[in-house]
Amino acid sequence: MNTEIAADLSWNLAQSPFSSVIQTNYIPSTEDLVCLEALLTESQLQLAQLESEVAHVQNLLDTLLLRRDNVKAYVEAHRALMSPMRRLPKETLSEIFIRCLPEDRYAVRSVAEAPLLLTAVSREWRQAAIGTPALWSSLHLYLPSELSSQTVHERIIGSTLWLDRTGSLPVSISL
Questions:
Q1: For a disulfide at 21, which of 26, 59, 114, 143, Cβ 3.0-4.6 Å?
Q2: Statement to judge: residues 37 and 110 lie in one domain
Q3: Domain limits for position 123
Q4: Rounded CA separation 36/25 (Å)
């Protein structure tokens, strides 16, 4: 590898027989043109060879990266099966979920907050959250003055479903 690097040093512009006139307004003579043509023939052949090697190495790299990504996805998928969260008893998971509720206000019907957010993580979390009545025992209803009948209908359905999940627990509602 070191000899290849050393060989590449021969392409240093400072070592060119034309180094003093590169990037100037110099007009080459006929003899200079012949010499330049010879220099370029060899250089262009080497450039083509290098571009071919780069393309080959890039293809190899792309293949290796794809294989790595596949193996990584395989490992991560199987590692996820070993997650301690999967082995938590439902009661412990429910207690953690309850502690995710806002402490300074009633819960709102938003998929960005508990308890609705918890139902979107996985099937197991959804079942655990829906089966935890304490998660659903408080609700803040926001009722703007102008709502379409469709929006009112959707909110009634969503709120009814929310309240059904409380089971026999008392419910606290704020407006």
A1: 26
A2: no
A3: 89-174
A4: 16
* 3 has pLDDT over 80: no
CA angle 162-92-79, nearest 5°? 105
- State percent of the chain over pLDDT 90: 73
Per the structure, how many domains does the chain have? 2
Q: Which DSSP string corresponds to the chain?
A: -HHHHHHHGGG-GGGSTTTTTTTS-----HHHHHHHHHHHHHHHHHHHHHHHHHHHHHHHHHHHHHHHHHHHHHHHHHHHHT-GGGGS-HHHHHHHHHHTS-SSS--BS-TTSTTTGGGGT-HHHHHHHHT-GGGGSEEEPP--S---HHHHHHHHHHHHHHHHTTTTS--EEE-
Long-range contacts from 109-118, C-beta under 8 angstroms, 24+ separation = 109/139, 109/141, 109/155, 109/158, 109/159, 109/162
